[in-house]
Amino acid sequence: MTQYELAPAHIHSLQGAKDTVAIIEERSLNDVVVQYKGEFYKAIFNPFVMAFYVDDLYGHLPDFKAPDQSD
Questions:
Q1: What is residue 13's three-state secondary structure?
Q2: Which of 21, 35, 45, 65 is deepest in the core (most CB within 10 A)?
Q3: Cα distance between residue 13 and residue 8, in whole Å
Q4: E strand residue ranges, 1-71
Q5: 6-65: per-residue pLDDT in tens?
C-alpha cells in the first residue's frame, strides 16, 4: 500500500470547510492532484495562508492514475 502525505484542505462542495485529503502529486502551486473520498481532483496551494483548496465540483480527474510508488 502506498502512503501519501495527508493534509487538511478547503473543499469546494463544503463551502470552504476543511477536510483531510491525500496529496498525490504536486506539479506546482497551482497544479496539485489530491485524492478525496476515493476520487482524484485538481487543487491549488495558497502559500500566503498555507492551505490547499480542492475543487471537487469542477476539478474531477476521472482518468488520472496515481503513480506507483512501491519499492
A1: helix
A2: 21
A3: 15
A4: 5-11, 18-28, 31-36, 39-46, 51-54
A5: 999 999 999 999 999 999 999 999 999 999 999 999 999 999 999 999 999 999 999 999
